[in-house]
Amino acid sequence: MAKINRIHTILMASCACVGLSACGADDIASPGEGTIVIPAPTPTPTPTPTPTPTPTGVTPAANCPTIAGAVQLSDLGTISDGGNTWRNCGFPTRFTSSTAIAKVAGVIYSLPGRVDVGTDQGAASTNTDVTLTIDPGVTIFAATGNAYLAVNRGNKINAVGTASQPIVFTSRENVLGTATDQSSGQWGGVVLLGRAKITDCLAPAAAPGTTACERDTEGSSGALYGGANDADNSGRMSYVQIRYSGFALAGGSELQGLTPSGVGTGTVIDHIQVHNSSDDGIEAFGGNAHFKYLVLTGNEDDNFDSDVGYRGTVQYVISAQRANNDIGDGFLETDSNGGSAANNGEDALPRQYLKMANFTYIHRSTTGSNGSAMLLRGGADLALVNGIIVAPTNSCLRIDSTTTTRDADTALEDAGKPRYISVAMQCNGTPYKGSRGVDAAAVQSIFEAGANSTISYTPSLTSLFINGATETARTAIDPKTIDSAFNTTNYIGAVRDSSDTWYAGWTCNSVTANFGSTSKDCTAIPTT
């Protein structure tokens, strides 16, 4: 061990000599001889602070907002899609006073089940009790089951979004991020209950079109509608999406995306998208509301259905059956099929009369029970103007019952045979169908009597629904010659050309139809 230590000492001394360049005594400074300079150490750089991460998704609000009135929102905790988390603020089961639902960062609203706006004021009432206002950009969802919003007679909804901030009604699954382009039937929908005239009264002895004539909403109970005021006002709905609705409440009875029932002309309904309803997109039960700017995508029954004496107008409609799924019935079901009682027979008054202008419909299903893109039956009148029907795999037009095809009769409020004016259709090899005393030849003659109408149509539509050269070349008429509630147009179809973008921004995109980059995906909840 001593030998090893000695060798170690010699090596250390040798290294020291090398470090000083020479080992002579004259080269070693003694203490006090000159100044030994020790280099200052290089300062340690100040560390760069780690930045605080910026949240990439929605973060929940601390609490639910306070609303006007005695009933308040319920704080139901939070709900998340994995990237965004919202404070879940539950509606009361009934709004008992007028209030507003505000767009608040980090807040989403929910329906605990059926939610009523006010209480039914009765068929003969003239007042407005409760108004529910919903601000632009608000999202409201409902869980699976008997969950829907009912605006009762004598009350109003004021749900007015904007082109960039639509109001969205949707399902819990959509909020959780599990809804897909094929999802449907995940909650009820929106029901408007008015005091306008209807037929098919609940009371067998009640006279249609009077305050004694009222009905309960399909698939529901205690949701009454009907009266004698055709100017009734149930409020306004504009720039609204209704997604994944249509829950089955009973055998054969389902709620639609939007169910206007006994709704009068004082009500404003425009810029509405109903997406992937498991039943109809919109079903109008009586009343005489006017609709404008509708987008009906992926719905499983009819896109626009009208019953029990509906008399109104519909203008600007983009309608497409769901893609990648052979499902859906048709574009229109227009009927007053009637029963055996005097107040629900096919000639009960007011007589149904649907007038529709500027529509484009894309039919994809081969399984619909109507057997055609459009079904007209019972004591119903119809006028279709400036329209496009693309149904290469199906019949286009079916008419059932001679009460639909007879000549005009003033006493029965019968406008006469249905009219198809400036309507271009692409159909399969059997374009016309009829039953109950109406044969296919009669249906053909009725269609061909309409000016500028054809089934020899080959579409040149772009982006599914935008008019191309073929559509632009078709002759249109002024819809105002049919009804003063229409706007004047000089083109067929819903969308005149690529510069006509009334559908953009407030709609949502899916595999069924894409409305451009300003519209977001139907499977995602808006976060701005």
From TrEMBL:
Entry keyword set: Signal
Region (Disordered), start-end ranges: 34-57
PROSITE patterns (UniProt xref): PROKAR_LIPOPROTEIN (PS51257)
Segment forming the signal sequence: 1-24
Top-level taxon in the UniProt lineage: Bacteria
Keyword Ribonucleoprotein: no
Comp. bias (Pro residues): 40-54
UniProt KW Signal keyword: yes
Protein name: Lipoprotein
Species, as recorded: Sphingobium indicum BiD32
